[in-house]
């Protein structure tokens, strides 16, 4: 079985996963979205769906003449668990960024000449 990271390395398959993240879709609905956004054929979308199914990221069920696709969460949970080891570092950097953004906003509000200087240069 192909690793989920390899499968999700393709932007078309990532987009299909995003669409399926909001609920089950028919193959026709998926083709419509993907064709509009990526300009690929129905058969190309079908190939991507097959890769997602074979990789365990999506399931398909037959409902009369339609095939309904849904997202399989287990591989995504495994990816999420793997990413957990990096989150503390990301959180620290994001907290620092939020502090700097807040500091910049506060300085713009409390420095009366900052706004005037910008307007003067633009004029």
Task: Characterise the protein shown here.
It is built from 7 helices and 3 strands, in the order ααβααββααα. With 123 residues, it is mainly alpha-helical. It has a 3-stranded antiparallel sheet. A hairpin with a 2-residue loop joins strand 2 and strand 3. The mean pLDDT is 89.
What is this entry, summarized?
The chain is mainly alpha-helical and 123 residues long. It has helices at 4-7, 11-20, 27-38, 42-54, 73-83, 87-110, 112-122, and strands at 25-26, 58-63, 66-71.
Average pLDDT rating = 89
Strand content: 5-15%
Distance between the termini: 62 Å
Order of helices and strands: HHEHHEEHHH
Q: Strand order within the widest sheet?
A: 1-3-2
What is the rounded Rg?
23 Å
Counting DSSP H or I runs of 4 or more residues, the number of helices is 7
Helix content: 55-70%
Beta-strand segment tally:
3
**Sheet of most strands:** 3 strands, antiparallel
Helix/strand-derived class? mainly alpha
pLDDT < 50 runs, ≥5 residues: none
The best one-word shape is elongated
Helix and strand arrangement:
Layout: H1 4-7, H2 11-20, E1 25-26, H3 27-38, H4 42-54, E2 58-63, E3 66-71, H5 73-83, H6 87-110, H7 112-122
Antiparallel strand pairs: 1-3, 2-3
Keywords:
single chain, 3-stranded antiparallel beta sheet, 123 residues, mainly alpha, 11% strand, elongated, 3 strands, 7 helices
